[in-house]
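Hi V.,

You were right to ask for the full record rather than a summary. Here it is.
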Amino acid sequence: MRQRRAKTYRKLMSLYCMTFGFREPYQVLVDSEICRVAIDSRIDLSRQLSTVLQGVTKPMITQCCIHELYLQGKSQQLAVDLAKTFERRKCNHREAIAGDDCLASVVGDTNKHRYVIATQSQPLRAKLRFVPGVPIIHINRSVMILEPPSEETIRVKQQKEQQALCPGAEELAKLSQQPSNPPRKKKGPKGPNPLSVKKKVARSTLPRNSDTTAPSSTSGLSICKERQREETDERPTSTRKRKRHRRHGGGPSPLVVTTGSCDSAEPPLR
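Predicted structure:
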């Protein structure tokens, strides 16, 4: 299979999976004619179905379609053997009917069981195009082809997309209960930013007694300074003066303490 065709078939199957709920393994209903064509064209029917549908498949056949192969005689024995390898799908027909009518009755009006139909019958394909969500496969010149989606399938797909975009009944009921013009909150002056406001310092309040008072640290410092000043004022001023003499020799200069006038002082010894 060419790459472009495989990409197209992958998109088609994604459409059927997302819109109509198809999933792997895909259930493929085959008819008696496509079994005969597959034997004549030497096509591995199960393998080709998996390649076209881009996934795992489960080929199925009804009892009415197998009965058609039995009626064609021993010349179609290989087609009968191929049909026997497929899973048998119950069609609930007590008497065998035509294969086209059997497949149409199994699919129904909505394809509830999500079947993929592989058939060579032109009337059956034309009939199934009016049923939404039915992938149709046929063989043309030894090439298996998946038909593009029908107009009915595209219409149902667009309808489901619109329903997904529009609100549902429950959502509309909730919207109707809500008031059309809700009251707006009045905008007033805003308070300061709590992170930029300086925090308040909690001051400890001590009980004051009339008899004893606890001096604070500042009062203690002031009392100490006053005491120092009083002591300096009470000190007597001494008349003694200490004189310093220059050195005339190498020895240390003695200190002379004089009391009284300067005339009564004795000269220093040299």
